[in-house]
Batch of 2 targets.
Target 1
Amino acid sequence: MPSQARRRMSNEARREQLLDLCADIVDREGFGAVSIDDVARSAGVTRTVLYQQFGGLDGMLEALVTRSTERVAETLEQVTSSDAPTLSDAMSTVLEAVDADPKTWRMFLIAAHVGPPSLTENLETGRSLIRGRNESAIAHRRTGGAASGQTDHGLTARMLQAMADEMVRLHLADPDTYTSRRLIDQVAWLEHQLFAEPAPLTASDDAQTAAANPADARANPADAWKAFVAGLTDAGDQLSHIVTGADANEQAGAFAP
């Protein structure tokens, strides 16, 4: 009976089933844990079926990357093709896609550095599209503004992209704490801060700030920025340790909730 059920599955359906099982392993343990034998065993088929479908392990992983890229590209196209979406609208679209297919987004935002080279290449292509769209939107929103001549549109676009990446990672790791609503509200607040003309700061405001935060009132903003960069450097060192680890168990640690 099981063999008859397998024969009734179309070639395309079988291919999707095998890619789903491959994605399950990647999501749980990382790319290094995927093997032809494990996927075949999970599907209840022989190794020959996988070789017929993909030509081997590398072909299966590349097919998984291609499928995942197409899914992410659909979302990116929605975000970049809209006439004038707000940042919060764009984040809402992305988070809806993340909730619908978290494995794919974990693959791009968590596993990219330990996966096939094409995964990183495709991710950077998508990020370039987003950066270009954000840079154009920022330039449009700031044109004529008081600070328009001082705005580095390209750098601002990269900062927004880094923020969005981190928000999606937080949502994937702990969706109950970092809910879609919480993240979207924060993006809406940030958008207002970036693009709304700020009210002038009064002497009374300065006095209240100093009274509430006496230690911070005279802090050098450059020192805060240096501390932020140092934190990013430490995070990069930790990621580098994960990426360069030869042990598949080290890679699997990147996927722990």
Target 2
Amino acid sequence: MGLLLFVENMIIKYLTDLSAYVTSVIVVSIAALICLAGAQDGIQINGIPLLFICMSVAFLMQWIAFIPAYIWQTERFYDLTGSLTYLTVTGLAIFGKSMWGHSDIDIRSLLLALLITVWALRLGTFLFVRILKAGEDRRFKDLKSSLPIFLRTWTLQGLWVFLTSVSALTAISAITVHPVDITLYTGTAIWIFGFVFEVIADYQKSRFRANKDNVDQFIQSGLWSISRHPNYFGEITLWVGVTIIALPVLRGWQFVTLISPFFVFLLLTRVSGIPLLQARADEKWGHLQTYQKYQENTPALWPKFPPIKSEPESRSGN
């Protein structure tokens, strides 16, 4: 019986590891296909599409960072590496356009690069400081001991970086230049709204957690009173804004890169965002009536803004 159990465990481990490697290959293949579509009519450097170079760098940075992370069994630099990758591929796209583009860098490209840079710097700093205070990221507790599974996690981050920013990177690396128009102003306004919404939500939750009276309590004030995940709403909104700015530049197969905000939405609402946090919250506070009421009355994502109360009309008599 002992031998059979050992063999069974070995088979399960082999299949699990194999599945992780296959997933990593599929992830890179998906990114490559979308890159192929986005690279149409794009800038090339010695015959290699600039967008393909950006995609390759996005994955290479994860795989390089994975090596010391696995050796030292740490995830502390995971989110920071993701943010640095955004900054690197965006800077690479701008540099490539300035050196090999057919015209000067346009305002739209500079704006897209600026918005991604501001977002990445803010989020990267916030997440890095948070994990330094927490000491660990519970998401990786059961993942980092397995080489193929931990590698898959880093590979998925490469996909996250590339697919989230691919519409912007495609617009920056495109040969086509579109003049300033309503999409630029509209997209920028939406980005500002989403960015501010996310920053305020993160700030409110950080202050709530810093208060010792709130230990083991859940936040339901501020923006968290109108959405259970207002930071994710802000995140999705700002990437919608980025995609709108990039939209006029896209041509033909490049429209495939409009997947960016949909990918962010699916990732946060169906994969690693809300589902994981919701499961933890249900386990921790699901038995509390206050939490049950909060969950019942507060949307998971889309904010439920309170109705605007109109002033009663004053009546004058003779």
